[in-house]
Amino acid sequence: MPRRRVSMGAYTDYSPALMTDMYEYTMLDACLKDGTADRKCVFEVFTRHLPEGRRYGVVAGTGRILDALEHFHLSEGDLKFLSDRKVVSPETIKWLENFRFSGTIKGYREGEMFFPNSPILQVEGTFGECTLLETLILSVLNYDSAVASAASRMVSAAKDRPCMDMGGRRTNEWAAVAAARAAVVGGFKGTANLLAAQIYGLKAIGTAAHCFTLVHDDERQAFRSQIAALGENTTLLVDTYNIEEAVKTAVEVAGPQLGGVRIDSGDLASLAQRVRNQLDALGATNTKITVTNDLDEYALAALQTAPVDSYGVGTMLVTGSGAPTCAMVYKLTEREGADGVMTPVAKKSKNKATVPGRKLAFRSYEYNLADCEHIISGSEKALAAYQPNPEWKNLLVDYVDHGTIDPQYQGHDAIMAAHEYRAKALAELPITAQSLMKGEPVIPTETTVL
Amino acid sequence: MPRRRVSMGAYTDYSPALMTDMYEYTMLDACLKDGTADRKCVFEVFTRHLPEGRRYGVVAGTGRILDALEHFHLSEGDLKFLSDRKVVSPETIKWLENFRFSGTIKGYREGEMFFPNSPILQVEGTFGECTLLETLILSVLNYDSAVASAASRMVSAAKDRPCMDMGGRRTNEWAAVAAARAAVVGGFKGTANLLAAQIYGLKAIGTAAHCFTLVHDDERQAFRSQIAALGENTTLLVDTYNIEEAVKTAVEVAGPQLGGVRIDSGDLASLAQRVRNQLDALGATNTKITVTNDLDEYALAALQTAPVDSYGVGTMLVTGSGAPTCAMVYKLTEREGADGVMTPVAKKSKNKATVPGRKLAFRSYEYNLADCEHIISGSEKALAAYQPNPEWKNLLVDYVDHGTIDPQYQGHDAIMAAHEYRAKALAELPITAQSLMKGEPVIPTETTVL
């Protein structure tokens, strides 16, 4: 697959610069007036907790943030809108005219595991430029990581059987594209979504719908038509009327070389067993069985002993299997004071207090298995002097250096690298991570304030 | 607000034509080869059940489908992609070159209540053109209606207090735009999302974030700055450090004309009560109190007696408050046979069987309250001869007539009309609809097959 540079068409007419909450612009306006907009700042993205009972999360979406950053500038239409609605003052409009993010971004890799308080993304720049990114960064990371985290659990539950994204119809049409990408980061092997396949170079997969059988005069004609168009290696949908008859017809029409059959209703385990035996008896021993129908990780685990070859997962994938968002937040942790010195800051809101200071993040291992997430916080000076254990894994990579994006984290190759990385990082966690039993995060997070 | 025609920039480079599952195109390919692609068809969108315990759903998104239809044609890039990936044959590429939907669409209004089996959308055209729309139509209706349905419950629970969408950061960045629109259909009064405000002409609202207080040397300077930029009618965030001190500072800085304060943490009801008393004691009797912090319809109901003036709702709005999708499906119900006669069809899949034949839909009333949803199904001829009770409300309106879109259902005015319509339609349901207790749909759906 050739490496594809992504240029989100969505951002051509509507830039991501207005994919934001109004208060980001009104705060910018006030801070430009009083001079604090130029203060150097560090913002960090983290979540206070994983969804109930989850053992780990999987980071996804960072590459999409980089794509969006490339287009994060205001069009004439955007400026006119902000001006007409009096969202900001004319002076701020002027400031926004040539806006480009010129800061630095570090963070966890896509496909990396995360835990409560992991500093998933760290954005450093002036207050003005960092605050404008808040909503967009959170939208991307909260949704994509929710999908990747659910996908990863499903892939574990499916053991070595491939999982395919078929969930586009059950979420917003653009979320569907992001979900397909995040599913692959989370371990899925392909997607039914053509736009995701086009934009990100993903493998596209598909079978047929019940309407295809119904529009034909009978099932035999439908199967004949599909094989004529797609070849005998196609997958025929066999549960429109009567599964046993459909399987018989399918093998009669395609011959024993038939690629596969799909079952989309009923008791999937016992139906798969019956269909497998029937296919074998008909000589179609290499014909694959794929099943679909509101699958989640628990259903996949229950199907482990059934003779199924692959899974199509829809609703529960794109809605994060009960956790459709990650509760990630974007918080100011350090800023320049009136004296020009960088100072750790934190809010003290009840149950929502934050840890002041920028963070370093490492993972330690014992017998090749992760045993702790170490978050080190402190002043710029203290962190510069800090010597981590050399055997720890440094979890922060450099995404953007003073406005320059590292392209290795964008496009198709980055997604496939994240796909591989997830499998490796998951294998390095205690095996309890792969349990579907509800429990605590599989490793503790220790925060050290220097 | 001037009426805005919507031209989704997202569709300029990436047309909605690839926001679809691959099998729609492979089915088209097979059907073009065997001649069934030209068969006249009727597809219908419905859900088999509401989310557990919900009394009704609210339709939203149909106007966005019309926007997408205007752009539903394949660019050269799209055709090249389908060709390079060998998704379809060269003959099908040719057919797709000038593709425009030329069929007819009827359906429920946006803002209308729906129940199990309500035919929310009815798409009539050739098999080829109708099948290509499946995924996109479902993506839009499933997500937008999930948000509008949750919004409607929240608005009921909030009584007359305005609810504002602040959820953009907790869902995909484009889903956020759709969610803001759907929230207004569902009864919300405004959104923090600027792009939604721009595209759909919605009211934009906002306060300030904790980082705004933190970037300043102290809270007093932050409040001064915000008032200098936005005037004393602005809303100050008072829970960064200590709420009581912040309220005192706020009134000192702004004077008793201060527009509002926002509380985002802790026990909102008791804090609102304390803050109200403090504000009144300081003479700021007209200063409003807005609260935020993972609100859902249950939290809003619990706040009914607290002195709160408005609500900012985030996560639970954009994730459908536990039901992030509506389980709507798009099923072939009638098609032309080899003999040219329209014939009702249905699949017989276990637990997923469908009712054959196109549907009419009416709601009947007793003492001005809805008492039944009537779904009438049958052959084209039987339906043409059918005489409904003249007192029933006909639930299907004409959206598209042979490819021509009725513009009254697009843009800002259509959203505001849907907003009004929802309030009226909800008031016509038995009051149990507004209960948050789990239960059955508030009126039964009766299906009659002629």
Automatic annotation (TrEMBL), chains A, B:
Family matches, as CDD domains: NAPRTase_A
GO cellular component, one term: cytosol
One example GO MF annotation: nicotinate phosphoribosyltransferase activity
GO biological process: NAD+ biosynthetic process via the salvage pathway
Domain Nicotinate/nicotinamide phosphoribosyltransferase: 163-323
Signal sequence residues: none
Pathway(s) where this gene product acts: Cofactor biosynthesis; NAD(+) biosynthesis; nicotinate D-ribonucleotide from nicotinate: step 1/1
UniProt-listed SUPFAM superfamilies: Nicotinate/Quinolinate PRTase C-terminal domain-like, Nicotinate/Quinolinate PRTase N-terminal domain-like
Top-level enzyme category: ligase
EC number annotated for this UniProt entry: 6.3.4.21
Residue span(s) of domain Nicotinate phosphoribosyltransferase N-terminal: 18-142
Catalysis performed (reactions): 5-phospho-alpha-D-ribose 1-diphosphate + nicotinate + ATP + H2O = nicotinate beta-D-ribonucleotide + ADP + phosphate + diphosphate
Modification after translation: Transiently phosphorylated on a His residue during the reaction cycle. Phosphorylation strongly increases the affinity for substrates and increases the rate of nicotinate D-ribonucleotide production. Dephosphorylation regenerates the low-affinity form of the enzyme, leading to product release.
Keywords on record: Glycosyltransferase, Ligase, Phosphoprotein, Pyridine nucleotide biosynthesis, Transferase
Family affiliation: Belongs to the NAPRTase family.
Record's function text: Catalyzes the first step in the biosynthesis of NAD from nicotinic acid, the ATP-dependent synthesis of beta-nicotinate D-ribonucleotide from nicotinate and 5-phospho-D-ribose 1-phosphate.
Protein name: Nicotinate phosphoribosyltransferase
Origin species: Bifidobacterium vespertilionis
